[in-house]
Amino acid sequence: MSNRSLSASPQGQEKLRKALERQNLTQMALVNERGIASWSTINRFFNGKPVKRELFIEICNELNLNWQDIATFPEEELNPTDALWLQLIELASPTKDIGLVLAKEQTLGWGTKSPSRYEKSVSVGAYIQVEVNLNIQGYLLLLLKDTSGEVCCFCPSCFAPENKLETGKTTLPQADSPITSFPIEGTPGKEQILAIITPKIPNLEWLPNPSDEPLTLTEDYLNTLLDYTNSSKETQILYTEYQVVK
How far is CA 180 from the centre of its chain? Predict the structure, then answer.
């Protein structure tokens, strides 16, 4: 796949247009002032035509965009886990009611003040808590896809043993967790959070126990979760993402 060309999706093309406006740039300026590529390549890139993968990534970086948010990926090119995760994301509603709160490493304490906005970019080595603001009561299933592509269930787990929640704000790790914050590890890239709220305990054989370590979700687990969410009319699915930087 590394030698293949990439093209911008329709949604990606809209993000590219907004990035140009935000930086007060034009396509021609990328050619004449930045010298990234020829006019024909730049024109093809912005019109959703295939360009070389390395050039595609370079242009996205120049515009401070994550190339994976811009590119279109035929489902057959995705590995099974990524393809199933993408289907779950498509069922979800983007939300501002889930986000990261920075925790100070030296205290790792509770009682952080409600932020005016959640962090959309966090550094490797930082310590964070995850806040979820529920507008309905129910059972929370919270999944995180990290920069390596691994999907883990953090609620329920030993870090969030209480998954039956009332409306309002809940913080992970929960108060009776063995830790008070999560360290940001791994490599830079995009991480995604999916919150699934159900009126009753999900009928999933693999659902972790409250004392378990976060469960890594396999292809089979994601398949059963997708079947469950598609068949459950009362399920609410929320989605957010953030960048991990050096």
Answer: 22
The string of pLDDT tens digits covering residues 116-170 is 479 989 999 999 999 999 999 999 999 999 988 899 999 999 999 999 999 999 9
Burial class (CB within 10 angstroms; exposed 0-12, middle 13-18, buried 19+) of 238: buried
Domains and CATH numbers, the chain: 5-72 (1.10.260), 81-245 (no CATH)
Per-residue pLDDT band at 201 (split at 50, 70, 90) = very high
DSSP 105-138: TTT--S-PPPPSS-BSEEETT-EEEEEEEESS-E
**Residue count (the chain):** 246
DSSP string, 228-245: HHHH-TT-EEEEEEEEEE
Q: Where are the beta strands (DSSP E) in the chain?
A: 5-6, 51-52, 93-94, 98-103, 121-123, 127-134, 138-145, 151-155, 164-165, 168-172, 182-183, 189-198, 215-216, 236-245
Omega cis (within 30) before 156:
yes
At 33, phi and psi to the nearest 5?
A: -95, -40
What tokens does 145 get?
């896809």
Q: Are 158 and 178 in contact (CB under 8 A)?
A: yes
SS3 (DSSP) at 34 = coil
Q: Are 227 and 179 in contact (CB under 8 A)?
A: no
Residue type, 53: R
Range of lowest pLDDT (30-44, 99-113, 174-188): 99-113
Q: What's the predicted TM-score (pTM) here?
A: 0.71
Question: Euclidean distance between the first and final Cα of the chain, in Å?
Answer: 26
